[in-house]
Design a protein that fits this description.
Distance between the termini: 29 Å
Number of domains: 2
Radius of gyration: 21 Å
CATH class of the largest domain: Alpha Beta
Largest sheet: 8 strands, mixed
Strand content: 5-15%
Length: about 425
């Protein structure tokens, strides 16, 4: 269990400063402030205007599912073209250090703690000088920290995954040359919008006059698809629709729903290379980089002791069905499905999707205000040895993170790079 304890220690010691403003102000009914985040940037020597003058250096990824997959494959493709790539994703699995990567490698712990300490100290020092219209969200502070780190490491290009929204997310402080739109679902209804179309409009708000290309998945909701098209036309961008088929020759990039999102990332990288006037790498060289991508917790396969584990962040019936089919095809029918359903989720449709499977539910409890909405998981009460030789583990990202830490699965590197 050392991995889980270490993960919690990293977050407690290094991350709390990024949550202070939200904890202090959200209870008073105050909201997220992009104006305040923008004003903090120059105090951190983050030059937003400089990034804005070079949209050919920025890819922004929005959507409901698969953003991390798209961002990782875009980054691997750009690295394969010889560029130093900074990647911002969320959330981290074993550690929030994984949210900030250069050439696929998570920021080292010592550098991360120094970076967080500097950002926290700067915010405390200049807080009274900033606009007082709300708080800087944790994801906003991660975004500013990442941009500072990328500049310090001399990154040629950056790939930024939005946290929850689009126009309301701090990634909108930069003007991207290419925008990726993954599938948009009915998540965050009442927060980002009252319909899927309204949510799509909010997410498409990252598209600006500086954007040349929008690379979008086919949307199941017609209103969402129309919202993306309208935003693209408004700014005179080129729209590239990526469907279920392979849009370029090469290897099968990812399993399940991840295949489309992987292709979105690769197409976006190729569009950015074209925008920057750079030569696309040879297909064989590109494919080698793409094959090196590692995505723990996205239908990932791990050998632990005498067991084969397939682990996925599936939390809806369609994703669960895909995970069962993938596990069956790759390692054989699961002997057990290990899952965690937080108390606030309706377990019935999820368990119905697991019909016919031997299911072990991880014990849990009610919110304590911690990560993952405060869901309490008692993973240490599960006897892994009793789960049989083939285990399919499904659940929310914070459950997957704890499981990966317990199994001591490496999450430090997301793809191979020759420059680190």
């Amino acid at each position: 269990m050392y991995g889980r304890v270490e993960m919690r220690r990293e977050r407690i010691e290094a991350d709390q400063a990024f949550f202070t403003e939200r904890l202090a102000q959200r209870g008073a009914g105050r909201g997220r402030s992009l104006l305040r985040a923008r004003a903090l940037a120059p105090h951190l020597d983050v030059r937003l205007d400089t990034w804005g003058e070079h949209p050919e250096r920025v890819i922004t990824v929005v959507g409901s599912k698969g953003k991390g997959t798209a961002a990782t494959f875009a980054s691997a493709a750009l690295a394969g073209a010889g560029l130093r790539v900074g990647t911002l994703t969320s959330p981290g699995l074993r550690s929030n250090r994984e949210r900030i990567r250069v050439d696929g490698l998570a920021v080292p712990r010592r550098d991360y703690e120094a970076l967080v300490g500097e950002v926290a100290a700067t915010l405390a020092r200049v807080s009274d000088l900033l606009p007082d219209d709300g708080y800087i969200s944790p994801s906003g502070l991660f975004t500013l920290s990442a941009l500072r780190h990328f500049a310090d490491r001399g990154c040629d290009v950056v790939v930024l995954e939005a946290g929850m929204g689009g126009a309301s997310d701090e990634v909108s402080l930069l003007a991207p040359g290419v925008v990726v739109v993954t599938p948009i679902l009915s998540e965050h209804i009442g927060v980002l919008g009252d319909t899927v179309a309204e949510i799509a409009t909010e997410k498409a708000g990252v598209i600006t006059a500086a954007t040349h290309d929008v690379v979008a998945a086919a949307q199941a909701d017609p209103g969402a698809g129309m919202a993306v098209q309208l935003a693209t036309r408004r700014h005179g961008c080129r729209l590239h629709q990526v469907g279920d088929r392979a849009d370029r020759p090469g290897p099968e990039l990812a399993s399940g729903f991840g295949g489309v999102n992987a292709r979105l990332g690769v197409v976006a990288a190729l569009r950015l290379l074209q925008l920057a006037g750079r030569t696309e790498p040879e297909p064989a060289a590109m494919d080698a980089w793409l094959r090196s991508v590692s995505l723990p917790g996205r239908l990932s396969h791990h050998r632990h002791g005498g067991q084969d584990w397939v682990i996925d962040c599936a939390t809806n019936p369609a994703a669960i069905a895909t995970a069962i089919a993938h596990a069956t095809a790759t390692v054989g029918p699961p002997t057990t499905v290990l899952t965690f359903v937080p108390h606030h989720r309706d377990a019935d449709p999820l368990l119905a999707a697991l019909g016919g499977q031997a299911v072990v539910r991880v014990p849990g409890g009610r919110s304590t205000g911690g990560p993952g909405g405060g869901a309490v998981m008692r993973l240490d009460e599960v006897d892994f040895g009793s789960l049989g030789p083939r285990v399919l583990a499904l659940g929310p990202v914070y459950f997957v993170g704890e499981l990966l830490a317990t199994l001591d699965i490496d999450c430090e590197r997301s793809f191979r790079a020759s420059r680190c």
